[in-house]
Amino acid sequence: MKRVVKKIFQKIMFIFYILFSPRIFVFFRLRFNQLYSMWKAYEFQSTGENFTIKYPLYVHGAKYITIGENFNCDLKLRLEAYDEHLGIKFFPKIIIGDNVSINSDCHIGAVNEIIIEDGVLIASKVFITDHYHGEITSEAINLPPAERKLYCKGTVKIEKNVWIGEGVAILPNVTIGENSVIGANSVITKNIPKNSVVGGNPARVIRTL
Prior knowledge:
- The chain has a single domain (43-208), classed as 3 Solenoid (UDP N-Acetylglucosamine Acyltransferase, domain 1), CATH 2.160.10.
- The chain has 3 helices and 23 strands.
- The chain has helices at 2-19, 22-41, 138-141, and strands at residues 46-47, 57-60, 65-67, 72-73, 77-81, 84-85, 88-89, 93-96, 101-102, 107-110, 113-116, 121-122, 127-129, 132-133, 150-151, 156-158, 163-164, 169-170, 175-176, 181-182, 187-188, 196-200, 203-208.
- The chain is elongated, with a radius of gyration of 22 Å.
- The mean pLDDT is 92.
């Protein structure tokens, strides 16, 4: 009896596979993401041609974000540009150039300015920020982190053709020089010269290309 039920179930599953094959799901997901990209593009200050994103995209302050041509990102990208926190005003900018590709689960947050130039490739789970929750002072440390004023040390700039590996954290007031390669799980706390391969926490130059 069990064998008969199993065979019937297998035949039913086969019919479902034919009717709803993975190719059909891929086709509809592609079309959905195309429509989703067109819809979300209107939120931003500007976007270039071939703006392609995957659902879901989390965005705050899209009016302060500009994106160039041939941009694509995988699912769960988080873009945040905050113009106010705890009653303090900010003038944020996130500027993304042409031919930039961002993988899944990345988070980019600005209260000042983050610039990502042309041709940058960003792997998954990368965090880029230009601010902290509070300065490292006795006054700030006595407050819960969520109640501390946002503090910005300076602009983050990622120059052309930089490749950023999985799990990298890029902290405020740094410039990563063009053509550099940032190894997985690195923490960038200071400027990186162009044509560098870096890795570690805090990151250091391993070699020059």
